[in-house]
Amino acid sequence: MNLRITISALSLGLLAAWGGLWAAPSAAEEPGGEELFKEHCATCHGPDGGGGIGLPLHLEDFLRIADREYLMETMRHGRPGRVMPGFEHILSKEERGRIADFIQGWREGPQAELPEVGEGDPARGADLFARHCADCHGPQGRGGTQPREAPGHITGEEQVVPPALNNSGFLAAASDRFIKATMLRGREGTPMTPFGEAEELSDQQMDDLVAFIRGWGEGVDPLAEPVIEVRSDMPMDELIPMLKMSINSHNFVFIRQQTLYEDLPPEGEEAESPVHILHFCSFGLLDKALEVDERVGTFLPCQITVYREGGQTVMSAINPKALSPLFHKPELELFCSLVSEQYLKIMQEASF
């Protein structure tokens, strides 16, 4: 009897041990904010947040006003058309929160109370922006020219690229109070000076500027049309390599480039106005979409057409988001919207 009891107890112990090996990972085993930052953020922002190809985050003036929600929304939306991608489909909300907590851990002082924002006049704000902001942020607020390669750890003000304000990702993450607080405090260690000091701008003028900047978020949705189109002044032979790089950077596989001509040129002459079609694919996304509805294959693999028109290089693609209602399957809309967003980001990044 004692032998049987001993064997039974041993068997239960072994089963418990094996069960522990196959159990789901505990919360303690999940990657922390520092580990996630190193994996997803440090390449651009630097291992200690000092910056590089991305903006520096380890700045006290920034950390005092950038709350957890702002950081999480920035990771969620990214900065379409700039270097920073959106991480909504890469990092879970909980993971974005752990990264935000890690970044906020750099803050040396308390979180600042953000200023109240009153009613502003966008027309007056437009004039103020042209005089005080456009030299750095661009006349249309689309930011400074971004480096194609990381310059290394940022050590001087001249290496900080002025961010885009006329950007859907920024406008989705930044509150009016955050924008005004940035004007008041500036960013010590960067070219952004505090406009609140020495009364360079009055409180009302800053409210006017906020109203003008916020107005950029009320434009036409670029993904509402059946065709997504981005134009660039860059020559076609320079734009296409940048487009291929952008495709790869968004985790798509470039398949091939197809060149078409409107007319065959006479022998010995070069063809005019070639049209280039770039074929690429995300096979994981393709499999998931086809599981929902095989008909989605009618506009796959992904294609971007490049041609010259009116002295500019045009990139265009069919908009899957606009086509998704034709399938009458709400679950397919997520995939179509995701691909449309990637199309736009790929083309915008290639054109900068």
UniProtKB/TrEMBL annotation:
The entry's keywords: Heme, Iron, Metal-binding, Signal
Xref: Pfam families: Cytochrom_C (PF00034), Cytochrome_CBB3 (PF13442), DUF302 (PF03625)
Top-rank lineage group of the source organism: Bacteria
One Gene Ontology MF term: metal ion binding
PROSITE patterns tied to this protein: CYTC
Signal peptide segment: 1-23
Keyword check for Nucleotide-binding: no
Cytochrome c domain: residues covered: 28-107, 120-217
SUPFAM superfamilies on file: Cytochrome c (SSF46626), TT1751-like (SSF103247)
Name of the protein in question: Cytochrome c oxidase cbb3-type subunit 3
Organism: Thiohalorhabdus denitrificans
Lineage: Bacteria, Pseudomonadati, Pseudomonadota, Gammaproteobacteria, Thiohalorhabdales
